[in-house]
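Support request, please re-run this one:
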Amino acid sequence: MKLSVPGRVTATAVVVTASLLAGGSIAGAAPAGQPAVAAAPDIPVANVKAHLTQLQSIATANGGNRAHGRTGYKASLDYVKAKLDAAGFTTTVQQFTSSGRTGYNLVADWPGGDTNQVIMSGSHLDSVTAGAGINDNGSGSAAVLETALAVSRAGYQPTKHLRFAWWGAEELGMVGSRYYVNSLSTANRSRISGYLNFDMIGSPNPGYFVYDDDPAIEKTFKEYYAGLGVPTEIETEGDGRSDHAPFKNAGVPVGGLFSGADYVKTAAQAAKWGGTSGLAFDRCYHSSCDTSANINDTALDRNSDAVAYAVWGLSQ
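Re-run finished. Output below.
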């Protein structure tokens, strides 16, 4: 997540509402004469963590970071792209320049679905120069990647078109995502029914925060967490500070999840979520200790499953 800038925005799409649920589950029986609603798969947290291990190894081999314009960033992008290409996605690498260095976005489209109704999920793949960026934002990048691979494993064919993205130079001010949004024609922007953003979802002292911009997308994530019996709060720490902002500013509905950065967990939050009050959600935010040891497995598992829940629910 980019430093500073108060507030985090989000606007959002069409969603899995209670009308999709039967027997309290998205996988419930459909009304007579209507096709059954496909259930989102469980996303194995071991798979997500395996991607984080690879990102850590890439950072270690490339000066300790995966920052914009550095070899570690390009190696991270190549790793994600290879997984997606092998899984049958159509991948596109978009190149841009920022601060005198070349940056890259990776966009992956799953074949099929109505391309006039695109459900897009994304995360920034770059770290700051200070460290490996495993929570910020290997966590979101790995969860989005594993959800995309789950789409392939399931042979999922939703009504809407699925698109996934990994952004460059977010830490410099959402440069990559803004470049992507600005490169779209007005017609192509209007085809994006919703953009879901995942930036820091495995914080070691986690909270469970949901973007509140688009009511439908917000409701989808809240339904998922209500099913777990986990209370959520509205996300405020990161308003305007991550890659949903360029989409929202262009009129695209947005939503997402967040587990907290350098804000301090209150006693009330610790009482409902566990963890330690009086400490930051992520004490290693933007520092060298944001390594593979800087992840809460439970938060990563829950949030990764929530990514899939929203992708499946919003695309049917």
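The radius of gyration is 18 Å. Residues 4-34 have pLDDT under 50 and may be disordered.
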